[in-house]
Input
Amino acid sequence: MAKRLGAQTVALTKAVSVAAGAAVVGSKEGEGPLRERFDEVGSDAYFGQKTWEKAESVMLKHCFELLCKKSQTAPAQLDYLLAGDLQSQCTGSAFAARESAVPFLGLYGACSTMGEAMTLGALLIDGGAAQRVCAMTSSHFCAAEREFRLPLEYGGQRTPSAQWTATAAGAVLLQSGDCGVRITHVTTGRITDGGITDAANMGAAMAPAALSTLKAHFADTGRAPGDYDAIITGDLGHFGHGLLEELMRREGYSFPNVFTDCGMLLYDAQRQDVHAGGSGCGCSAAVFAGHILKCLREGMWRRVLFAPTGALMSVVTSQQGESIPGICHALAIEAEGAA
Amino acid sequence: MAKRLGAQTVALTKAVSVAAGAAVVGSKEGEGPLRERFDEVGSDAYFGQKTWEKAESVMLKHCFELLCKKSQTAPAQLDYLLAGDLQSQCTGSAFAARESAVPFLGLYGACSTMGEAMTLGALLIDGGAAQRVCAMTSSHFCAAEREFRLPLEYGGQRTPSAQWTATAAGAVLLQSGDCGVRITHVTTGRITDGGITDAANMGAAMAPAALSTLKAHFADTGRAPGDYDAIITGDLGHFGHGLLEELMRREGYSFPNVFTDCGMLLYDAQRQDVHAGGSGCGCSAAVFAGHILKCLREGMWRRVLFAPTGALMSVVTSQQGESIPGICHALAIEAEGAA
Output
């Protein structure tokens, strides 16, 4: 039975493990610093399909199948599939899951979706409603540009604060029992709106949400940044991460080198011309499933805080002059034997 | 600790009550047969805003505030707010929840969203992660026409199978402990695609999903349609409901008069010119919070199966020639003293 700590955190009382992970990325992501960490790298943006939207679904479906294969788990053994993505009406994930026959719970948390899916999956297992759950999500650069900004054919200039939506899919198998890497705490975010209206500066829009959730996590658990080997925000990118550092220092928190960000890890920002770094649901999902999980398994990190961030706007809300609300969900995850 | 029954159902072991409900609807919905059941009826489509999208958010926000007021619950007493809607990137609900400061979990289940939100809310309470949860959703006719079909200004003709997206918001307070009306079982749907490609015939696209989930519910629980006083699908409308009847009879199930549908209950289809009936996330949400919950409280029904259905397509998937996947989530809900 889960135990609530403070206003936003739940401490899991049952062992809930991240039993396996799979990550499939696009060709650009496969040229970045984490290229060796992903299970598969696509040769182009299409994944054998005629449209970018279908390409995203096929990439995510393939990632799900790979997760099942790697973990020797049949889809019929999964109690729930928790998924979402950035396409309108979350069709990227719905079409990826269409033939799976797994009870499906669709989520929308923008680029925080992997954090939301893992949070709910962990709570469903801890509460006894499930034994095995798949949490997965994806994004696709070309589909997202069409959805949120301009068609690529337009050839628009990007501002320095703009981030590059990752073409990437990540999936994890959460399982009851101790399989080496465990989720111990989940801190669910409140919507936080700092008044940013520039849709090309999502790092700034999401930084206050990251601050809010990290503060809540530290207050609820009595922990400090130094209790973690790594604190990995979702995809604030270089601009947003710098802003988070400033915001945290103003609030009196230390900001040791353990702080990093999936949007900073995925690309070599200078060499790969991605401006402020990576973004998109698939960014934190693939970095978690491909890299963070392996770092925990390999003993490089013993305890991490994984905190994907999302910007909850749409083209319509931006056109109607609204500011950009952000959200961030954090999960404390430990490798076996963590102190 | 929840108990799994079969592949898709969980029997709740803790008392999880629907402690309160609130429903706010548009003027057309306020002229229908359920007009006396709703808490508030808007005087026009705008709810004081300049755009339909903002109108939807304000309507839903108002519904949430009304729920808090009616139940004498402060937002700070809520452990989670589970919400979603039909607008791209679910901004209807995100903007409605923006100032609430309640830990927020965004969902996308199309018109099944209320079923998904109540399912997850019930499981979070049953598992001990929460004491009090708000599940809410909305839809807006004008915003949905722009999102999914044609701008209203175009004045397009509607086909007989077309449904009318309800301008409506519904919210319920789920709470640990016995408050008279309890959720006893949740059956989570699989995505089911019958190959329908006509986005003006969503009832047909969703009927196979309703069949799939109802069959699973009866198989998992050992119950039959006759064990319920009412079986209320989400918004199949008149066409889809007729199709569900045919599909169920073919599978050897009886289809007694206890079967009805939120899309059939909301409007007087002939008089109000809504063709096949109501649809939209807000349809089943407002009919549940305004009508079904009262029927349980007033003793008219002792045990109901509430089964909202959703069509998981977007304009883009339809334009790209995809068929329409459907989903349906069912909840068994009992009034005090049900046999």
